[in-house]
Amino acid sequence: MESSEVRYQAVARSLRDGIAGGEYATGARLPSESELAAAFAVSRGTVRQAFAVLRAEGLIASRRGARRVVTGGERTQGFAELMSFSAWARSVGEVPGGRVVELLRRPASAVEAAQLDVDDDAPIYHLTRVRTLSGRAVMIERTAYVERVGALLPGIDMATESVTERLAALGIVLTEAEHRIDAVAAGTEDAALLDVAAGSPLLRTRRRTTDQAGDPIEWSADTYRSDAAVFVVHNSAALTALARVERPVPSQ
Least buried of 25, 145, 156, 174, by fewest C-beta within 10 Å? Predict the structure, then answer.
């Protein structure tokens, strides 16, 4: 483990796996900060960082002077750590999967060009894929990739592999993302792909992801069944990356 960031993520991942695997059942108390610090050979500050990640994901709760308690229950996804769908699915005890609906090389739309910082009508790759949890369709991802990255997609088994993890193995690491979250009604196509009624509420996250150099790699709109996951954002008065954008109310 080469940095404090890697260490706290490793601690959080181990505890997350323990919760998903039943080692720490709902209502159970986690080991203390000092016990975990000794077990992982890290500082108590690193353990507290790991606890903060798990609390943001809704997996644990804490009270002053008491050990952290596993809350369990809902499938929650936090934003304290950039995590692929496959990694998140495994962390909540599910088997990730996917079905490619369409993969196209085409000119970028105006929005895609702006988000990916490419010229208008520049060639990009656009992937539409249904993501599954243990065989059940829960999310549709529609992702535009810059051409140099999208050209790698045909060599990835997108039914079983994580695109994010395969790209990382190829040296393309997604390091930062900005998320915009809103609710939309299921259109005919989304309703059919997710097996819900047309007009059903869906949770949508739009994400712009960059690499280590800060260059845009992907622009994605991920649409979830409303019963598939709960997104958890932890912030504070001292520092927060959460912003609220008010939509204009249409005139009657």
Answer: 25
DSSP state of 62: -
Are the beta carbons of 113 and 87 closer than 8 angstroms? no
Cα–Cα distance between 226 and 182 in angstroms, integer? Answer: 12
3-class SS of residue 76: strand
What length does the chain have? 252
By three-state DSSP, how is residue 178 classified? strand
Q: Which residue has the tokens 């203390």?
A: 32
Take residue 128 and report the two structure tokens written for it. 């539409």
Could you tell me if 90 and 20 are in contact, meaning their C-beta atoms sit under 8 angstroms apart? Answer: yes
Residue 68 Cα distances to 21, 45, 81, 93, angstroms: 18, 15, 19, 20
Six token digits for residue 224: 């979830």
pLDDT in tens, 187-227: 999 999 999 999 999 999 999 999 989 999 999 999 999 88
* 3-state secondary structure at position 130: strand
Q: Alpha carbon of 88 to those of 97, 99, 102, 162, 229: distances in Å?
A: 12, 18, 23, 11, 11
Contact criterion met (CB below 8 Å) for 181 and 203: yes
The rounded percent of the chain whose pLDDT value lies above 70 is 81
For the entire predicted model, the pTM comes to: 0.66
